[in-house]
Amino acid sequence: MADRIEEKSRFAGWRREAWLFMKAQLSAQIATVIDFLITILLVKLFGIYYLYATFIGSVIGGIVNCVINYEWVFKAEDCKKIHVGLKYFIVWGGSILINTWGTFALTEWLARMKWVNGLLGYYVYDVFILSKITVALLVAFFWNYYLQRFFVYRNHNLKRFLKQRLEHK
């Protein structure tokens, strides 16, 4: 009997984590759609260099993601907004740098590949969309979710958290 209760409890925990991950991914997708729309509009309609447009899209998408995550995904009402904001800014800054640099590096690499040139011609503005999608997915899964889940939306005392991390090294 105790084994069945423990098994149900384990399944419920797994289900809760899976639901949280799905909500976080939905939030990220909403922010990503906004990010991509802004980026593509800035490049295609206004002729802004794709790297600047990527940065601007990432900033606006990040703001949208933070608000949705705070209110709906992680329900961080018990966390001080200033602490969430500071922690999000740290993680978000890293995300913007990785997204921007990653998009640039992958775009430049793909643009120099002969098979890509054969498919698309040397038209960086089309290649950057493929690069942006690839980098955005990698950053979403391996950077944003874990840092937001275990750092940003947890009620950590930031000074104590950093002090503990620095002392353990």
TrEMBL record:
GO terms for biological process: polysaccharide biosynthetic process. GO terms for cellular component: membrane. Keywords: Membrane, Transmembrane, Transmembrane helix. It comes from the Bacteria. InterPro entries: GtrA_DPMS_TM. Residues 30-152 form the GtrA/DPMS transmembrane domain. The chain crosses the membrane at residues 20-43, 49-68, 89-111, 123-146. The keyword RNA-binding does not apply. It is a multi-pass membrane protein. It is found in: Membrane. This is GtrA/DPMS transmembrane domain-containing protein. It comes from Bacteroides oleiciplenus YIT 12058.
